[in-house]
Structures are given as structure tokens and as C-alpha cells.
Write a structure and sequence with these properties.
heterotrimer; A alpha/beta; B alpha/beta; C mainly alpha; A: alpha/beta; Rossmann fold; 7-stranded mixed beta sheet; 6-stranded mixed beta sheet; 20 helices; globular; C: mainly alpha; two-stranded antiparallel sheet; 14 helices; 4 strands; signal (chain B); BMP_lipoprotein (chain B); membrane (chain B); lipoprotein (chain B)
């Protein structure tokens, strides 16, 4: 039973937030509301009228639309084609449809251009296309599944503006998220789901994030922040003068990475901030050996690996938590234990000589499931049947099991519930203490700032800025990500929101004297103990309790 | 689960194999029915209604049924058959008591040899090939001689001095047609251009693919060829159809008198003549010999001089050149002209 | 866990059973529509097909079918559609026949010919692999064209005076010497070709290679998700070429039962089209070594009984219809069952997790 005793009332013309851990039953509830799954009992009323939804088509016909967490767009089609696909009867596929798209786009300030190829769009734009697609089909109630997971703060704000527009036009939005700050800022009502049932409702104006978090997980939110610096002087990954060009869909050759230089030391987490599509994915692929750079060198632990095959690099100690786990991290239709082999087929315990050791792989999968708290009834189920958080825990467990020297973690907690998030952070921290070097890429700037020892900002294929995670705020980082700032970023005191400032992000005169190289050096070698971080430190113990509690529960099966 | 299913499946398959190895149960050939059911005719691909080769054999059987009062049954081959299927077909017929069993087409050579050994009391016949066996009648024709006459006619009738040959499959038998035709054309009109093409290098589908023949014919017609001789079984219909769509072009049919065939009624004004292979005569001969208790065996050639092959005159399109044709025929019959059986390598 | 296993087994069997039942109903309707009695037809098929000599016939027929299905399945497992098995096995058998017919090889004749066939098949398929990786040509297009090129090449060499000899109206490569005749299993009726042993070995090798080796894991990974495979360190391009080579080498074996056990030469009457039958059987057997074996036997059975049906006065094409309908039903049934299974599994995972959750709830409450 994934859901039971769910009570949810959404008022018309409001933004209603639905909070809860992944695997708590949010997705199932949404599937029921969208007609993808049938409830065993209970009723759904729409505008006071009882309805039964047998399929998404039913739901659409009744004005319910869904924007999925994973976008359902065809990359090689234009926005117009994607929007009209399957809805050709509404406004045709020609100019009438184009006009309608423009009309909707203008009405809600979506800024969608109908004739661009979807593959050329960034994540935020794609999301707007998804929203438009739903509106185009006449939706009056929108369900948004974790819409902010992929966005930077500025984009989140833009999205919330869009949502407010929708609301003011009388549309209803159901907004699924576990980011409490966002929920509180945009929602009119909040319903919290835990373990498949509604555990409470809240009114944002009367609720603090703390209260909401307690409602959600029964305890306080974990923090991504690290305890103390473990950075050493030993370089683990060195990238020098890296340049990479790629052929885009029009056949034109573009430089996607240029002049990339950085070093990650043992025990260091280097956080890479940047709006998606600015070359982070390409950088990761170049380090992984999936793309061959035009110039520059990549050195891992003293050995040059610039043109080495991916498998050799993995064997050489690179662990990889991919950005898109469905595309790069899992075989969705294969059982968990085969997924445990994926990427490490040549390493123990998965194989001996040229032969697979299925028995050992199975046993080790059991271990990962146990130690990393992957919630599954067994290791023979397919990866697709697990929730996102548990899939990610499996991937993290798999990669950590091979004791990597370097971990590339791209959005390691995207779409992962709070409990799993904390665990993944713990794992990264623990490995870092043991001398692991981590390249962390994340759109969650809190995570990025909290976990990293060093921060770099990527913009249009170049590393344009660096910052000290001890002092920088997400807003400041965000403005650098949009290209508004470069060089070494300094924290603005007095709480001046950099976004409001005209000279935003550019090194302000006050901070100029403190030269950047010094700050960077300091931060690398000295343990970080900024007062800002200390209050949140105690939470660790309560979290451990929670984990051990879960493990006991898990052992009984 | 993987393990469970693998083991079960392995067990099942082992059992199945063991079952087969011991080959328990009775053999299908033990249940043999009566005898003397008449003629058993196994066609080549294309089937009875190919308007050509198979149909000619069928006529022989029909005539025997009528004249001699014997029974009979015919069966058809599929595209892409193996030896096993042909053997099975012949075995079925022989086993059911049909006598003689006739394999129409040289593809049956080996299967006839194999099956004839098992049924020594049954007479077998194979058309277009020579098969070993004391109870086997091997029927071959002088296709090259008939084709020579077709070549003479084509050369005389072509206004552009361009003639074409289309073979179904590039094999020894069809090359005989090509060789005779080319020689006939050259001996009559040394300046004439001959285009010879095959539908398939080595796939029997060539006798059962009218669309391919139509394409080939159209290609030739486009290049100015105005008489096309097609030796390709059922595929020939496609070529005839293509020719009939053009003005002043002639098709030459093969095996049966294609002018007379109902299925080709629409195109008959373009069928100059046909190289008739009197398969029906040969089939009738075998059936009659069995009926008379003196079954034929060994090789039998049906040549021009025996009227085993001839040019059809229906439609009267070649009446004006009859003298020249008769002269050519006489030269062959007299041995003055030796018709090649394989085309000259150019 | 046991429970899921049982369900999986039932689901696994459900698809073929569903497909065969559906095919049965549809063909009955078709035979009925032609005014004949369908049940008599089935009776004829079962009676005739189960006869001892029919069993031998079916196994002999199924052997090349099975090899062909294996060749196709190697490609299928990594999402490559090798339509060229037909051309590959013919050109492989042809050159093996040439080598065996012209050179005196003595006792090594059989292994040499088998190796030649596998190498030639691999080269022919490898061309398609190379074209795909270097020029991005779809293997569907290139293999189907290579079929045609192969046929023409054979047609060129298979002429009297080139590499072939003429015997009556048949043209074929020289007969193989007795040392190149494969052994046979004598039975009460006709012998079973010894090559069935090689087919079984090939089936086991296929299962072992794909299921038990690293290479096989890589291959399946590419088949399931090219992007995940690449990220996991598999060189997709190299995999494409390697699997095409393996597929082609396997295809090289397809013609061998005929060449070494029946015809002893490659002639104009050498069977064609087995490569396409292999595609159907690989689909039917879902690329599973046992499933394909059963599929090949079923095909052999249908071939065997089809001729008998004609003898009984049914249209010969009925068997073709049955075969087509079975394939169609299998593809549909597998997809239905797969979706249903996925749904069941997801629900089960949800249920078990909920059960766990309520258990730990209780534990917490107790604490």
C-alpha cells in the first residue's frame, strides 16, 4: 500500500504545496490525481463533482495537467512541435497553434519561443515549455512535481512569478516540493504527507520552516554543511588548459569548454556552480572520458588520463554519480544487482578474470542495500520500481563501494528526499575525511555552499569566478552564475541583496583590498569554523539515531 | 527465478531431445495408404498457374486423367525451400500410393534420387534434369534449339536491331535458353545488339517474381530494345505486361504457348511467339508408360527434331517469316547448325 | 522474494501461452473462413508432426533455424538489427564449400571449413558494423544491402568454369570429400544431423557469453541503455563492431548443417531465407537460448506439417499464416505482459515498503 487515508483539499485559484519525502507517497498520489493509477478506495471531487480518472487523457479532459519531474520533451523537435504533439486537434499544427502558444506565453509571462529546438533550451526554458504544453491543452489545475529541483535561485523566483500569474488568472496549482523555504514563500496552503498518509496541513503565514520540517520528517532538517576542513596539499585531480568543442544540432562546431584549470586535492570538495547548460555536463564527461578534449591535460593522482578510456579511468579510481541517473547511472529494466555491476564490471566483487561473479555481486548488493538503506523488498526488483531517492542511494552505495580517489557527484541529491539527502551528504563527508577528492556539481546552492571547500562558478564554458563557501550566500553565487559577476566573489555585509544592487556581484570597492588569492589559500589550509555554520552542527546525532532506527526496521524483513 | 526457469527449461529440452533421439512413435511412412492412385505431380515454385512451365506439366496430367482415366494429385513448392521439404513432398506422394511421381523442375534432381531409392516399386520422373536410379525417368529438353528459333524470329522482327533476354535465375538451365537465343539472333542479324540479364543470381525466387521481371523489361525497353524473350517461369508475366504497354514491341513467351493463356489474354497481341517446351508431352508419356506396365526410365531428351520443343504460331505474328524459321529448323535438325548450351563469354 | 520469483515465472510463461492461444483462435477463424474444418487440420498436424520420422525431420530443420536465431539474437541483445544473417550465412557457406571442395584437407577439413565459414560470416557482418561506427549507416540498411551484394558475389563465382561445376542443370561447388562429412545420429528412421551438437554448444556458448562474462554484461548494457553503457565505461563503437562480428560468425554456422550434412556442396539449390526465419524465431524466443530452441522446433514442426496440410487439401499458405500470426501475437503478448509485470512489481515494492514503514512505526511507538 503506497497511500492510505489521504485527505487533500485544494482551493481554487491557489498554490497548494504538497510536502513529503520521496517514497512517502507523493508521486503515487499525483499519479492517482492524474489518472495514471486507480485508487483502491476513496473519492476525488473536482469542483464539487465526483470524478473517476482512468487515464491521463481523462485528467486532461477535466482540466488537470501535470508537469513531470523528468521532462517529457522530444529533444529533436521544436517547441511548437513538442507542444502540439498529441494535441493536433486543438489548434492544428501550423500558424494557429503558433499564435496560441504566443498568446499563452504572453498571458503568463512564460517567454516561450515556439520555433527553437528543445535541445537548445536550458532547463528552466524546458520547464516553461512543459507548463505551456499543459496550459495549451486547457488545464485549469496544474500539478508540478519538484519543479525547483533543477533550477537556480533566480530561476526559481521567475518560476514563482509564473505561478503567481497563473493563480491570479484563477488557475489552481499543486506544487510538490521538499524545499521548505520555497514552499513557504509561494504556497497558499500546505499539506504534508508522510509514509503514505497526510499528516497535517499548514498555513504558510503561521508556520516556520522548522515546524514544517518536523511535520514532514518528524525531526529537524539535516544540514549539508561539513564539520571541518580535511583539505590536504596532495593534488588528486588536476585539469590544465582544457578545451573541448562539440558539434551542435546545426552542424556548427562550438567551443563548449575553454581554458578550464583547477586542482582538487585529497580530502577536498570542489563545488562547481553554474546554470545548467554552461558546460558542467561536458566538463564531467571530459573527466570521465566520454568526450575527448581538444587541448589540455587531465591528471589523476599523478597519472595523466587526458585520453584514457572511460573504463580505465573508472578502474583508476573515479567514482561517478551522474546528473541524470536514468540515462547515465542505471539500467532501469535490470534488477538491482545488475545495476550494482554497472560501471564496475571489471572490478571485484563483480567479476573474476573475464567472468562475472553473479553470486558475489548479489551478496554485495545486499550489503549496499543494507548499509545505504536502499528501501527495496529485494535485489531482484528492477531499478525502475524504486523511488528516485532509493535509486540514488543505490548509485552512491555502488560508487563508494569501490573506494574512489575522486568522486564526481553531479546533483547527487536531486529529487531525493530529506532522509536520503542527509545520508548522501554523510557519505560524501565521510569519504572526504578518508582523503577522497570530490567534484560536486549542484543546482542546490545550499548544498553546494554547505559541502564544498572551494567554489568555482562556470559560465559559458569557462570558470569565471571563485568564492569562499564560508562567507558566500546563495544569492551572491546565483548572480555570478548568470554571468553578472566574475573574479573572486566577496560576501557583501549589511545584508545588501546583490540582486538589488546595480553593480551586482562585481567585486565591490570595499572588498577589493582583500586580494583573492590569499583568501583562497587561507581557506584551503585552515579548518573552517565560521560561526555561521556552527549552530547546525548538533543535528548530526539525531540523524544518526533516525538512520539506525530505519536499519532495525529493515532487518526484520 | 532465472535459475528455476533455466533448470526447468533445460530439463524440458533434454527430455524433448531424448524423446526425439529414440524417435518413438510410429513413422509417418508406415501408415501408407492404398496404391495406384494415379499420378503425383510436384510443381516447382510458381505453382500450377504459372502460365508457363508448371502449367505445361499440369496439362500433361490433365490429358492423362482424361485419356487414360488415371487419378492424380499435385502439390506446390514454396519459395526458399530446402532439400528436406522437397523430399517430404515426394515421399508423401509416393507413400500415399501415387505412381508415377513426377518432380517438375531440376530442383527435384537430388530429392528424386533420394526418394526413388526408398520406393523402388514406384516410377519417378524429373523434368529438366538427369537423376540416377533404375526407376527414374529423366526428361530434358532442347531449350537451346527452341530458343535459337526464337532468336531468329526476334532478329527478323526487331526494327531497332536491339533484342533482349531476361532469365529468371542465372543457372545452367536458363543459360541454355540464353545461349540458343543469342546464337539465333547473331546468325540471322550479325549487327543486332543483344542485352541479356538475369533477375536473380541464384535465388529460385526469380521464377516467382513478376515485379522484378517487369522492372528489368522496362529498363530494356527504355534503352530501345523492342523484342524481349523471357525465360523465367511465372516471372515472365511481368515482362510480358511491360512489353504490352509499349507500341511496336514484342514479347516472346516460354514453356507454354503463352498467347493461348487466359491469364495473359490482355497482352496477347504483343506475344510474338512462345518457345514451347512440351513438358505436357513428356509428363503424359511417363504416365502412359506406367499405365501400360512398361515404365520409362533413364534419360530422355525431347529435342527440336522430336517436337519436344517448338515455336508457337498462335496469333499468326510469325507467319510472314515462316520460311526462314523452317530453314533454320532444318539446319538444326540436320545437324548443320550446332546450338550451344552455354552462352559465349563475351 | 520467492513470491516474486513465482510471479515472474508465471508471467514468463504467460506471454507465449497467450500468444499461442491467440494464434490458435485466429488461425481457426481463418481456416474456418475458407470453408474447411480447422480442428481436422490441427489433428493432421499433431498426428503427422509427432511421427518418428517427422521428429527427426523437425530437429534437422530446426538446427539451422536455431543457429540463425542465435546470430540474430546477439544483435538484438544490444539493439542491433542484423537483417543480414541471410547473406552472411550464404556467403560463409559458399566460401567454406569452396575451401572444402578444392583443397585436400584430410582430417582437419571440418574444423577448417567451420572456421572459414565463421570468419567469412564475421567479415561480412563486420562491414556493416564498421559502416555504422565510422559513417553512421544504419545496420538495417547496410546489412540488407550486403545481402544483395553477397548474393551477386555468389552468383558471379557460382558459374561453370569459375568456382563451380555443372551437374545436369545444377551448378555447384565440387563435392566435399568423405572426410568432410559431419557425423550423424542414426535413429529408427532417418539420421539426425550431428550438427545439432554444434547448435547446442552454440546455444550454451551464447548463454554463457551473455549471461556470465563481463563482455556479455557490457553487451547487454549497451542494449538496455547506450548512454548508461557509455558512462559505465563501455566503448559503444567497439561493442557494435564486436557484436556484429560475433553475430556474423554465428551466422556463418547456419549453412553448415546443410553443407556438411546434406548437400556436401554449395549449389544453386542451397537453401535461402533461413536468416529471415531466424529473426522470427529470435523474436519468438525472446533472445533466450531455450526459448529460441523451442521456437526453432515449433517452426520446424509447422514447416513439416504444412506440406502435409496441403496433401490433406488445405491451402499450403495456412502454415505461413499461422507463423505470421504467432509472431504478431508473441510481440503483442510480451509487451502486454511486460507492462503488466512492471506494474505489479511497482505495486509490490510500494506495498512492502508500506508494510516496513508501519512496522518501524510500531517499533518507534514502542520505543
Amino acid at each position: 500500500m503506497a497511500n492510505h487515508d489521504i485527505h487533500l483539499t485544494v482551493r481554487k485559484g491557489t498554490v497548494h504545496a504538497l510536502c513529503g519525502e520521496n517514497g512517502a507517497g507523493k508521486s503515487t498520489l499525483m499519479k492517482i490525481l492524474y489518472g495514471m493509477q486507480k485508487p483502491d478506495e476513496g473519492t476525488i471531487k473536482l469542483d464539487g463533482e465526483q470524478v473517476s480518472l482512468h487515464s491521463p487523457a481523462d485528467a486532461i479532459a477535466r482540466g488537470i495537467g501535470m508537469v513531470h519531474q523528468h521532462f517529457m520533451l522530444a529533444d529533436n523537435l521544436t517547441v511548437l512541435e513538442n507542444v502540439v504533439l498529441g494535441a493536433e486537434k486543438l489548434y492544428g499544427i501550423g500558424n494557429k497553434a503558433r499564435a496560441k502558444i504566443k498568446e499563452i506565453s504572453d498571458a503568463y509571462g512564460l517567454g516561450v519561443r515556439p520555433d527553437v529546438l528543445v535541445e537548445d533550451l536550458g532547463v528552466a526554458d524546458r520547464q516553461r515549455v512543459e507548463i505551456l504544453k499543459v496550459l495549451y491543452r486547457g488545464a485549469r489545475t496544474l500539478i508540478l512535481d519538484e519543479p525547483t529541483a533543477v533550477l537556480v535561485p533566480q530561476e526559481v523566483d521567475a518560476l514563482f512569478d509564473n505561478l503567481r500569474e497563473l493563480k491570479s488568472e484563477g488557475l489552481t496549482v499543486i506544487f510538490i516540493s521538499h524545499k521548505l523555504g520555497e514552499v513557504l514563500s509561494v504556497a497558499d496552503d500546505i499539506t504534508v504527507i508522510r509514509r503514505g498518509t497526510t499528516v497535517g496541513t499548514a498555513v504558510p503565514s503561521e508556520t516556520t520552516p522548522k515546524q514544517l520540517a518536523e511535520l514532514m520528517v518528524g525531526e529537524e532538517l539535516p544540514s549539508p554543511e561539513t564539520r571541518e576542513s580535511t583539505v590536504t596539499d596532495v593534488p588528486m585531480l588536476t585539469v590544465e588548459g582544457l578545451r573541448l568543442s562539440a558539434t551542435d544540432s546545426d552542424g556548427a562546431v562550438r567551443t563548449v569548454l575553454d581554458g578550464i584549470e583547477f586542482t582538487i586535492h585529497k580530502g577536498e570538495v570542489l563545488g562547481l556552480a553554474g546554470v545548467e547548460g554552461n558546460g558542467q555536463a561536458e566538463l564531467v564527461e571530459a573527466i570521465m572520458g566520454m568526450r575527448d578534449p581538444d587541448a589540455g591535460t587531465i591528471t589523476l593522482d599523478g597519472a595523466e588520463i587526458t585520453h584514457l578510456a572511460t573504463r580505465k579511468r573508472r578502474e583508476g579510481g573515479i567514482g561517478y554519480i551522474p546528473e541524470d541517473r536514468h540515462r547515465h547511472g542505471l539500467l532501469l529494466e535490470a534488477p538491482l544487482w545488475e545495476n550494482r555491476i554497472l560501471g564496475h564490471v571489471t572490478e571485484a566483487p563483480n567479476s573474476k578474470g573475464g567472468l562475472l561473479d553473479n553470486k558475489a555481486a548479489r551478496a554485495d548488493t545486499e550489503r549496499i542495500v543494507r548499509e545505504y538503506d536502499v528501501r527495496t523488498p529485494g535485489i531482484e526488483v528492477t531499478a525502475a520500481s524504486l523511488s528516485g531517492g532509493n535509486q540514488q542511494k543505490l548509485i552512491v552505495g555502488r560508487e563508494m563501494s569501490h573506494h574512489p580517489k575522486l568522486l564526481i557527484a553531479a546533483h547527487p541529491t536531486r529529487g531525493v528526499d530529506v532522509g536520503a539527502q542527509a545520508q548522501i551528504w554523510d557519505q560524501i563527508r565521510e569519504a572526504r575525511r578518508e582523503g577522497l577528492a570530490v567534484l560536486l556539481i549542484s543546482a542546490d546552492l545550499d548544498e553546494l555552499i554547505g559541502l564544498s571547500d572551494t567554489l568555482r562558478v562556470m559560465f559559458r564554458g569557462r570558470l569565471v569566478a571563485d568564492a569562499d563557501p564560508a562567507t558566500i550566500t546563495p544569492e551572491e553565487l546565483g548572480s555570478a552564475m548568470t554571468g553578472a559577476a566574475s573574479g573572486h566573489l566577496e560576501h557583501h555585509e549589511e545584508g545588501t541583496p546583490p540582486g538589488a544592487d546595480e553593480g551586482e556581484g562585481k567585486n565591490s570597492p570595499e572588498s577589493e583590498p582583500e586580494s583573492s588569492p590569499k583568501a583562497e589559500k587561507d581557506q584551503k589550509n585552515s579548518p573552517r569554523n565560521s560561526p555561521k555554520n556552527s549552530p547546525k552542527r548538533e543535528k548530526k546525532s539525531s540523524k544518526n539515531q533516525k538512520n539506525s532506527g530505519k536499519r532495525e526496521g529493515g532487518d526484520e524483513k | 527465478m532465472r535459475r528455476v526457469s533455466t533448470i526447468t527449461a533445460a530439463a524440458v529440452s533434454t527430455a524433448a531431445l531424448a524423446f526425439s533421439l529414440t524417435a518413438c512413435g510410429s513413422s509417418s511412412t508406415e501408415s501408407s495408404g492404398g496404391k495406384d492412385k494415379g499420378v503425383g505431380l510436384a510443381y516447382d515454385v510458381g505453382g500450377r498457374d504459372d502460365h508457363s512451365f508448371n502449367e505445361s506439366a499440369a496439362r500433361g496430367m490433365d490429358k492423362a486423367k482424361k485419356d487414360l482415366g488415371v487419378g492424380g494429385r499435385d502439390m506446390t513448392a514454396k519459395n526458399g525451400e530446402t532439400e528436406a521439404e522437397r523430399e517430404q513432398r515426394l515421399t508423401s506422394l509416393a507413400d500415399a500410393g501415387y505412381n508415377p511421381v513426377i518432380g517438375v523442375g531440376f530442383n527435384y534432381q537430388k530429392s528424386i534420387e533420394a526418394v526413388a531409392k526408398q520406393y523402388p516399386k514406384t516410377t519417378f520422373a524429373v523434368i529438366d534434369s538427369v537423376a540416377a536410379g533404375s526407376n527414374v525417368d529423366s526428361v530434358t529438353f532442347g531449350e537451346n534449339e527452341g530458343s535459337y528459333l526464337a532468336g531468329v524470329a526476334a532478329a527478323l522482327k526487331s526494327k531497332n536491331h536491339k533484342v533482349g533476354f531476361i532469365g529468371g535465375v542465372n543457372n545452367a538451365l536458363i543459360q541454355k535458353f540464353q545461349a540458343g537465343f543469342e546464337q539465333g539472333v547473331k546468325d540471322t542479324d550479325s549487327k543486332a545488339q543483344i542485352t541479356s540479364q538475369y533477375l536473380y543470381p541464384n535465388n529460385d525466387k526469380g521464377f516467382n517474381d513478376p515485379a522484378a521481371a517487369k522492372d528489368k523489361a522496362n529498363g530494356m525497353l527504355d534503352s530501345g530494345v523492342d523484342v524481349i524473350y523471357t525465360a523465367a517461369g511465372l516471372s515472365g508475366n511481368g515482362s510480358i505486361e511491360a512489353v504490352a504497354a509499349r507500341k511496336d514491341c514484342w514479347a516472346i513467351g516460354v514453356d507454354s504457348d503463352q498467347y493461348q493463356q487466359a491469364g495473359l489474354e490482355k497482352y496477347k497481341d504483343h506475344i510474338l511467339t512462345s518457345v514451347v517446351k512440351n513438358v505436357d508431352v513428356a509428363v503424359y508419356d511417363v504416365i502412359k508408360s506406367v499405365k501400360d506396365g512398361k515404365p520409362l526410365s533413364g534419360p530422355h531428351q525431347y529435342l527440336l527434331k522430336d517436337n519436344g520443343v517448338s515455336l508457337a504460331t498462335s496469333g499468326g505474328f510469325i507467319d510472314d517469316i515462316k520460311d526462314k524459321l523452317d530453314a533454320a529448323k532444318k539446319k538444326i535438325v540436320d545437324g548443320e547448325v550446332k546450338v550451344r548450351i552455354a552462352p559465349q563469354q563475351s | 522474494m520467492k513470491k516474486i520469483d513465482k510471479n515472474k515465472l508465471i508471467l514468463g510463461l504467460a506471454a507465449p501461452v497467450l500468444a499461442i492461444v491467440a494464434a490458435f483462435i485466429i488461425t481457426s477463424a481463418i481456416i474456418g473462413a475458407t470453408g474447411k474444418d480447422p480442428f481436422h487440420a490441427y489433428q493432421v498436424m499433431v498426428d503427422f508432426g509427432s511421427k518418428a520420422d517427422s521428429q527427426v525431420w523437425i530437429i534437422n530443420k530446426a538446427t539451422p533455424y536455431y543457429l540463425s536465431a542465435l546470430a540474430v539474437a546477439v544483435g538484438f541483445r544490444m539493439n542491433l538489427f542484423n537483417i543480414g544473417v541471410d547473406g552472411q550465412y550464404r556467403i560463409a557457406a559458399f566460401f567454406a564449400a569452396v575451401v572444402g571442395g578444392y583443397f585436400t584437407l584430410g582430417p582437419v577439413a571440418i574444423p577448417v571449413m567451420i572456421i572459414v565459414a565463421m570468419v567469412v560470416g564475421a567479415i561480412w557482418a563486420g562491414i556493416a558494423g564498421l559502416l555504422k561506427t565510422t559513417r553512421g549507416v544504419s545496420e538495417v540498411i547496410s546489412t540488407i544491402m550486403l545481402n544483395s551484394i553477397g548474393a551477386s558475389l555468389i552468383g558471379y563465382f557460382l558459374q561453370d568454369g569459375r568456382l563451380a561445376k555443372k551437374e545436369g542443370n545444377l551448378i555447384h561447388t565440387p563435392y566435399l570429400p568423405g572426410s568432410a562429412h559431419f557425423f550423424e545420429f542414426p535413429t529408427q528412421t532417418k539420421p539426425i544431423y550431428g550438427f545439432v551438437v554444434i547448435a547446442v554448444i552454440a546455444g550454451v556458448a551464447y548463454w554463457f557469453l551473455l549471461g556470465r562474462t563481463r563482455f556479455g554484461f557490457d553487451l547487454r548494457t549497451v542494449g538496455q541503455s547506450e548512454s548508461a553503457a557509455q558512462a559505465s565505461g563501455v566503448s559503444v563503437k567497439r561493442m557494435v563492431i564486436t557484436s556484429m562480428l560475433i553475430s556474423g560468425a554465428m551466422a556463418g554456422l547456419v549453412g553448415m548443417p546443410t553443407l556438411l550434412g546434406v548437400s556436401y556442396n554449395y549449389g544453386t539449390d542451397f537453401p535461402t531465407g533461413i536468416g529471415f526465419t531466424g529473426i522470427a524465431i529470435a523474436l519468438l524466443g525472446r533472445n533466450h537460448p531455450i526459448g529460441m530452441a523451442l521456437g526453432a522446433l515449433l517452426w520446424g514442426f509447422l514447416d513439416r506439417t504444412g506440406t502435409q496440410l496441403e496433401f490433406e487439401g488445405y491451402a499450403q499458405e495456412i502454415v505461413g499464416v499461422i507463423q505470421g500470426v504467432i509472431i504478431l501475437c508473441v510481440v503483442i503478448a510480451y509487451e502486454l505482459v511486460r507492462r503488466y509485470g512492471l506494474k505489479i512489481q511497482q505495486r509490490k515494492v510500494g506495498e512492502e515498503l508500506a508494510a516496513q514503514a508501519s512496522k518501524s512505526d510500531k517499533a518507534e511507538a514502542a520505543a
